[in-house]
Design a protein that fits this description.
Keywords (chain B): Glycosyltransferase, Transferase
Distance between the termini of chain A: 19 Å
Shape of chain A: globular
Oligomer: heterodimer
Strand content of chain B: 25-35%
Number of strands of chain B: 8
InterPro entries (chain B): PRTase-like, PRTase_dom, PyrR_bifunctional
Number of strands of chain A: 9
Largest interface: A-B, 25 and 18 residues
Number of helices of chain A: 12
CATH architecture of chain B: 3-Layer(aba) Sandwich
CATH topology of the largest domain in chain A: Rossmann fold
Strand content of chain A: 5-15%
Number of domains of chain B: 1
Domain Phosphoribosyltransferase (chain B): 3-156
Protein name (chain B): Pyrimidine operon attenuation protein / uracil phosphoribosyltransferase
GO molecular function (chain B): glycosyltransferase activity
Helix content of chain B: 25-40%
Strand order of the largest sheet of chain B: 3-2-4-5-6
Chain lengths: 309, 176
């Protein structure tokens, strides 16, 4: 068994079997991470470069840990402080890195489609660590993996994705992953932050009421407002957004049932999520982060065996 | 296809291996058994069950170890990627006498990988190897078994398969 793709560019390209294979492999890596020695020598002959053209805390540390725990050699590259500021192009930068015998590329870029473009020009596997407003596949995989771990399966479960759907690559990747695994998905947020025709295009439900979404859902994946990607006012103030769409203790207590709370981080406490919800019993936010390492080990392991041409 | 061990012979062989283990380890006080995933675990289950009936009331520690991440043929030409199996070791192996259990000892490379995998869980005081079938003359590494069910001379194009009722519908060891 192996993946149907040579690169992990987005969940859109994966089959359900691919996702399940990644989960099955991640289960075993999760066990490795509980051992006294949390490291295996599987990729000891592999060098991986993490190319980050955009800021990151969790994803970058998580990828680096995953690579190190697979025994790979790791190089980190940040656009800031590099020759990118001298005008070097993406392809030139990556070709130069690859000429030093690097076997895999993990890339984050603010331009949607940047890793897809790169994949047509280089012959090593690429893992997309987030491209603009398009996809963030490993985040969606770890989110679905965490739901599976918490609820036993993803199939038939009701997931609400809340907040800035328009600018969130996590939202799009999550929708693809959850639909492929047979979950029901509702997106909720202000009308200005939900793309038109989303319901028809991706087969999700759309609502503008956070209460309605939470009444319906087993799990709420609450997203951050991506102010850095919004170049025009889409709501009047963060305070107003928080009043209308913030997930508060009061709101959760008024529901008839418990809803599992997820967040891909970084959290803007008091905006989309109150502190006592983020740190509450129903929150699996830190389990998501923990699972991220096992998921990324699985993705790197399964892709590293793929020969490209 | 040629039968190496019939169901009856297989049962007698497993019984003998259990008695040999008891001879060396008595009450298994400081001994742990580790079945190699995926195929050695089937034999390990049989040995574990049989030992429990031979030594009622004794606490025997038995785990499963997967060697996928430790193989030396990962990412080599012509090899497809392997899906890992479960590792379940719910006890410490530090200073224990470990018995590794596999169904067929062939090149010795699986055993080498198992030794590496095992060492990540601690430093055993000694390690022994039990193999149901020993394909002698086929070794690529200096590894030998301490307990052998049956020694077989087979050429490289032949394949030794161990069949178990719970998985394959019958107990038998065949050469094909």
């Amino acid at each position: 068994m192996s993946l149907s793709v040579k690169h992990l560019l987005g969940i859109r390209d994966l089959t359900r079997q691919d996702i399940e294979l990644i989960f099955q492999t991640a289960d075993q890596f999760k066990e490795v991470l509980q051992r006294p020695i949390k490291k295996v020598p599987t990729l000891r002959d592999t060098t991986i470069v993490n190319v980050f053209y955009e800021n990151s805390t969790r994803t970058r540390i998580s990828f680096e840990l995953a690579e190190k725990r697979l025994g790979a050699d790791v190089i980190n590259f940040s656009a800031s402080g590099s020759s990118v500021s001298k005008g070097e192009t993406l392809i030139d930068t990556v070709h130069n890195i690859l000429s030093m015998k690097v076997d895999m590329v993990v890339m984050r870029h603010s331009a949607s489609g940047a890793p897809h473009f790169l994949s047509r020009h280089i012959d090593v596997p690429i893992v997309n660590a987030g491209d603009g407003i398009n996809e963030h596949p490993t985040q969606a995989l770890l989110d679905a993996f965490s739901i599976r771990e918490k609820l036993g399966s993803v199939e038939g479960k009701k997931i609400a994705i809340c907040g800035d759907i328009m600018h969130s690559r996590v939202a799009l990747s999550n929708i693809y992953a959850l639909k492929k695994l047979g979950a029901e998905v509702t997106v909720v947020g202000p009308p200005t932050l939900i793309p038109k025709h989303l319901a028809d295009a991706l087969g999700v439900n759309v609502t503008y009421s956070i209460r309605e979404a939470l009444e319906w859902a087993d799990v709420a994946n609450v997203l951050r407002i991506q102010l850095e990607r919004q170049n025009m006012p889409l709501f009047s103030s963060l305070r107003e957004y928080s009043l209308a769409y913030g997930v508060t203790r009061q709101l959760l207590n008024s529901l008839k049932k418990e809803v599992i709370i997820m967040h891909p981080g970084p959290i803007n406490r008091g905006v989309e999520l109150d502190s006592n919800v983020a740190d509450g019993n129903e929150s699996i936010i830190l389990q998501q982060v923990e699972n991220g390492v096992a998921i990324r080990m699985a993705a790197l392991y399964l892709l590293s065996g793929r020969k490209i041409n | 296809m040629k039968t190496i061990l019939t169901a009856k012979q297989l049962s007698i062989t497993v019984d003998r291996l259990c008695h040999q283990l008891i001879e060396n380890h008595l009450n298994f006080e400081n001994t742990v058994l580790l079945g190699l995933q995926p195929r050695g675990v089937w034999l390990g289950n049989h040995i574990y069950t049989k030992l429990k009936t031979l030594l009622p009331g004794t606490n025997i520690q038995y785990g499963k170890i997967d060697i996928t991440f430790y193989r030396d043929d990962f990412n080599k030409k012509g090899k497809s990627i392997l899906v890992p199996n479960e590792t379940a070791i719910n006890f410490t192996i530090e200073n224990k006498r470990v018995v590794l259990i596999d169904d067929v000892l062939y090149t010795g490379r699986s055993t080498r990988a198992a030794l590496d995998a095992m060492m990540d869980f601690g430093r055993p005081s000694s390690v022994e190897l039990l193999a149901l079938i020993d394909r002698r003359f086929s070794r690529e590494l200096p590894i030998q078994a301490d307990y052998v069910g049956r020694t077989v001379d087979a050429i490289i194009t032949e394949n030794v398969r161990v069949l178990w009722t719970e998985r394959d519908g019958r107990d038998e060891v065949v050469l094909e």
